[in-house]
Amino acid sequence: MKELHGIPVSPGIGIGKVFLYLDNMALEIPRYDITRGQVEYEWSRFTAALSNAVAEVRSLYDQAVQEMSSDQAEIFQAHSMMLEDKQFHEQIRTKLENDLQNIEWIVWEVSHELIQKMSASPDAYLRERAADIAGVSHYILDWFVSNKKTSLAALPDHTILVAHDLMPADILSLDRSKVTGIVMDSGGRTAHTAILARAFEIPAVLGLSGITKNLNGAEVLVLNGDTGVVIIDPDAPTQKRYEKARSEYQKKLALFESLRKLPAQTRDGHTVKLHANIEIAEEAEQLSCYGADGIGLYRSEFLFLSSAHVASEEKQFQAYRRVIKIMGNLPVTIRTIDIGGDKVLPGIQQANNEKNPLLGWRAIRFCLARPGFFKTQLRAVLRASAFGTVRILFPLISGCEELEQVLTVLEEAKAECRQKGQLYDEHIAVGSMIEVPSAALTADILAEKSDFFSIGTNDLVQYTMAVDRGNEQVNHLAQPFHPAILRLIKYTIDSAHAKGIPAAMCGEFAGAPLATMLLLGLGLDEFSMTAQAIPIIKHIIRSVTWEQCRLLAEKALSCTAEQQVLRLLEEHNLERIGHGKSA
Predict the structure, then answer these.
(1) Which of 388, 465, 376 has the alpha carbon at shortest distance from 425?
(2) Alpha carbons 76 and 583: distance in angstroms, whole number
(3) Which one, of 22, 19, 21, 14, lies nearest residue 229 by Cα?
(4) Every domain of the chain and the residues it spans
(5) What is the CA 30 to chain-centroid distance, rounded?
(6) Which stretches of 306-421 are DSSP H helices?
């Protein structure tokens, strides 16, 4: 038995026998020289293959529209646009004329260079887009190279599909009644495989580098799409435990459905809001299934990082409006772009080798240094606000002067919208993200100029505890239950309430079951988390009284050490709800 840890991208528990799918790695591309007189013939072969590939992708799009939401089907539309990209064609034509080699080799080389460039990006989202380039090139190369593919339409029952990567077309061709899970070497939450797995409710874990090399196809696999755990050849007790967990998960789905339309209200009538965090527009489609009261954090930077070019105002406006329309009357909180450090924005920002990137030129600091760029995004958000309830959230605010600068730029963006006759919500709410100690300690001042707070615990813990979460030697010190963190959270919430504004939390701590009673007792008004966590947090809230939570929080604030806080929470029988200590 061997346990691995990957990236959980689609919830649920899968148990089954491995089906090792490596056809997507098996193309053998011929390579030979041609004469200059053969260039036009080779180019005609390319245009014929391209035409066939475009027709195939359009057919896949039509099929996808019938089987999933239009937003998810747009994956295939994006592939069609990539196939028809004139710049891509020009690169191939230039290389063909310069290298004088057969067209299939030229297509492979151009694609390979693009894939290597994107794979080397410090940003995970761009690395995942390399898979799209690979997929698009395969549509073309399949017309040149005889490649008899294994059919995924007739798999055995209880199959765990394991691959290096999968094209969206592969997912569409699956007999989904036979597939209990998907595991891949590559990919992350924003990979197209992840989006489609969630759409079809197939548990999936990606980013398990090298798993295909360690399997022969005869193994049994267990995967947990909520935690990212994958177990190869589990022993009998482990398999039995996961089978029981899968059965309990199915029962919980029925419970969650019964809670979906109920408020997040304690037994003594105290109500809070449970919002969802999203990264891409497609995720908004699923939120109603989990009973989300709105979107508490729309990470807008993924709209920028998904393209080799800076997103235009129109492209941003269309993306924001699409999410707002999906959510109807529910609020959508759009965080302005949070890039910098290891997330480099193509076309406008270059890696600058900062010694401490997380303490450097990022988030609101970057935006204030690029007011034209910043106002473009603000105008797009403002225009979208005419179509629903929108809030703007500013990341990494460190103090009042910085917030005043931001609000000045926002007023300039509003004036530009008025000048162009563009409608927007005149009373749009603006929020400060509390994720550095200086912001938390001046929360009473920031509350004067904010309509709401959103506490980002991931960074608040990192900066308060002086811990790099990516450093394995010290990341165990990044504990949100530390007394210092609890006191900063309490002071932030109290400062918000003193000025009559709500306090939200959008860090991972908000979706931690063990923290739910504590955060309720500290006075948190809005919890924002991954959508899958909403039902379980709601279940806990509806199982307790606010008075219980208030007394628990008082005791927690008097603790002198993190372990004391954890023991206190465990003593209050949160384990009986069955959600452990994960934070």
Answers:
(1) 388
(2) 37
(3) 14
(4) 2-24+149-234, 27-141, 259-577
(5) 39
(6) 313-327, 363-369, 371-384, 400-419
Q: What phi and psi, each to the nearest 5 degrees, are found at residue 387?
A: -110, 5
CA angle (402, 405, 407) in 5-degree steps: 110
Are 459 and 422 contacting, i.e. CB atoms less than 8 angstroms apart? no
Sign of the dihedral defined by the CA atoms of residues 555, 558, 562, 563, in that order? negative
Residues identified as active-site:
192, 506
Pair of tokens at residue 171: 């997912």
Q: Which residues of the chain have pLDDT under 70?
A: 23-27, 65, 67-74, 121-129, 146-151, 190, 305-310, 340-358, 469-472, 475, 573-583
CATH topology classification for 259-577: TIM Barrel (3.20.20)
What amino acid is encoded at 562 in this protein? E
Residues whose CB is less than 8 angstroms from the CB of residue 258 and which lie 6 or more positions away in sequence, other chains included: none
- What are the CA-CA distances from residue 44 to residues 41, 48, 143, 154, 246 (Å)? 5, 6, 13, 36, 54
Exposure b/e, 372-405, CB count within 10 A at least 16 = b: ebbbbbbbbbbbbbebbbbbbbbbbbbeeebbee
Q: Domain 2-24+149-234, what fold?
A: Glucose Oxidase; domain 1 (3.50.30)
What pLDDT score does 147 carry?
A: 53
Q: Read off the pLDDT of residues 93-115 as tens digits, 9 standing for 90 and up.
A: 999 999 999 998 899 888 888 88
Q: Where are the beta strands (DSSP E) in 174-283?
A: 179-184, 204-206, 220-224, 229-232, 264-265, 271-278
Single-letter amino acid, residue 567? R
* pTM recorded for the entire structure: 0.67
* C-alpha closest to that of 56 among 152, 161, 142, 153: 142
Q: Among residues 313, 299, 281, which one has the least CA distance to residue 379?
A: 313
Report DSSP state, residue 24: G
Structure tokens at 85: 């990209």
Token pair for residue 520? 């309720």
Residues 25, 28, 33, CA angle at the centre, nearest 5°? 140
Token pair, residue 472, equals: 């394995």
What architecture is domain 27-141? Orthogonal Bundle (1.10)
Q: 213: which strand partners?
A: none
> For 25, which DSSP code?
G
Cβ-contact 333, 393 below 8 angstroms: yes
- Amino acid at site 273: K
Nearest partner of 321 among 425, 226, 421, 178, judged by Cα: 425
For the segment 515-570, what is each residue's pLDDT rounded down to a tens digit?
999 999 999 999 999 887 898 899 999 999 999 999 999 999 999 999 999 889 88
- What the block records as the tokens of 304 is 């920028």
Non-local (6+) Cβ contacts of 357 within 8 A are 340, 341, 342
pLDDT confidence of residue 579: 39
Other Cβ atoms less than 10 A from the Cβ of 227: the count is 14
User: In this structure, what token pair is assigned to residue 450?
Assistant: 């904010």
